[in-house]
Design goal:
232 residues; mainly alpha; SP0561-like; 8 helices; globular
Length: 232
Amino acid sequence: MTEVAFKNQQIGEIVTNDFRTSSVFTDAGIDFCCGGKQSVGEACKALNLDVDALEQKVKAVNSEPINHALNFKEWDLSFLMDYIKNTHHKYVLKSLPDLVFYTAKIADVHGDNHAELVEIASKIKEVNNELSQHLKMEEEVLFPAIKTHLTKPSKETRAIIHSEITRMLGEHDFAGGTLDEINRLTAGYKIPEDACNTYRVAFKLLKEFEDDIHIHVHLENNILFPKALQLD
């Protein structure tokens, strides 16, 4: 089989094959979760990046010894779902109330001088409302359906898996797109000179939350969901 040129490879597939490359794409400002179906060449063209330079960075990461404990694509689906729930779902549910509080606080205090903060606070409320219901549906509907289908496949569980994943993908696009917009509004979470400590805390939390969402969505969009859709 002819090897696919680096520029033609899907970003999500590269990260799935070696999760460590996610740091290369993150540093380059390339979305590897919701934008995982995009080719490297398309992403580089949109951001005016050097494909060859990016390829060398990916190859450098690939050449390092692999920690097989984090080889997500080889994990059993049940274990992967438990990991997502106990790691990423818990983080989201713990972090969102703080994000809502801090973004509202800095919008009240600094909104006159930084109008983008008002928009950011509003967007975080939307993300909070969306993800709270989203995680509930994953934990109570989708994940149980996948686990049931693994041991006792049926038309009913297959239908649930397909319909829920279709909806989940759209909700991922919303959450990821909203966080990308917040990143843009803050110029990459750049701290202004008049920022108070609360301002700094809010931006630190936003950056950490976006980083976690990228990993969270990647595990679902590029590993869990495709495998679940291929179940007999």
